[in-house]
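Long-time lurker. I teach an intro course on protein structure, and each term I like to show students one example going from raw sequence to a predicted 3D structure in token notation. This year I'd like something fresh instead of my usual example. Would anyone be willing to generate the tokens for the chain below so I can use it in lecture? Attribution to the forum is fine with me.
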Amino acid sequence: MKVCTDACVFGASIFLPENGNILDIGTGTGVLSLMLAQRTNAHIDAVEIEKNAFEQASDNIKNSIFKSQIDIFHIDLRNFLPEKKYNLIVTNPPFFSHNSISPKKERNLAMHTDSLSFDDILIFSKKYLEIEGNLWVLLPEYEGEIFKKQATLQNLFLSKQINIYQNKEKPIFRTLLNFQKNDILSDIKYENFYIYKQKIEYSEEFIALLKEYYIIF
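-- Reply from a regular --
Happy to contribute to a lecture. Here you go:
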């Protein structure tokens, strides 16, 4: 699987606890867990249901300097029963509900909610988030609105939303959503983020955010 630009923005944007426990749901290549490990001393658990993605992520983690900080599990989230709670849960979940089904089983698992529903993520997060913990999710705008409504039903409330645009001429590309257990409706923070200032030229804000990760900067 490719490492997408929006996933990199996601990993660099998340506010992290200095210590404690973090869970990465649907880790894919493991890139999000590895990005987070560069900025925190917290222990990271990563779960992945698809076998090839799990093996790729395992190799990436094993060959990194953060291997002692990350544990990876080949398991369905619905069967994952940790004996701890998490200060932070992050996920870039499947979002095409029964649309554009790919003939490749692996891509279907990664891109469709059949293998990991929004309710699966929310029910798990409600149970395993610490009282002051945070859930961060990366989704397209439409699916993000659905996720927000379902989150409220689980008493998880939006705290911050970052709208990601390719550039100022394009519509919203992705949304980064931060949820907490406390209802702070009046204090929700909204931000806009632009990847490019021109078609192939990164914006200053993108360069500043990703300079610790991209060797081209």
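Some talking points for your students: Residues 97-103, 105-113 have pLDDT under 50 and may be disordered. The first helix runs from residue 5 to 13.
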